[in-house]
Amino acid sequence: MPRILKILFFLVIVRPVVLVVLGLNIRNLQKLPRTGPAVIAANHNSHLDTMVLMSLYPLAMIHKVRPVAAADYFLKNKWLAWFSLNVIGIIPLTRGGHVKREDLFVDCHKALDKGDILIIFPEGTRGEPEQQAKPKKGLFYLVKDRTDTAITPVIMYGLGRALPRGEALFVPFVCDVVIGDPMSVAADSDAFVAQLTDTFAQLRQQCVTGTSIN
Amino acid sequence: MLLKHIPDNSLHAMLGVIALLVVASLIQFVLRLRRPEKDYTELHQRITSWWWMIGLLFIFLVSGRNPAIVFFGFISFLALKEFVSIVPTRQADRNVVFWAYLSIPVQYYWVATAWYGMFIIFIPVYMFLFIPMRMVLKGETEGFIKSAGVLHWSVMLTVFSVSHVAYLLVLPVKNSFAGGVGLVLYLLFMTQFNDISQYTWGKLFGKHKIIPKVSPKKTWEGFVGGLVTITVVAGFVAPLLTPLTRLEGFVAGVIISASGFIGDVVISSVKRDLHIKDSGTLIPGHGGILDRLDSLMYTAPLFFHYIYYLHY
Question: Would residue A48 count as lying in a domain?
Answer without folding.
Answer: yes
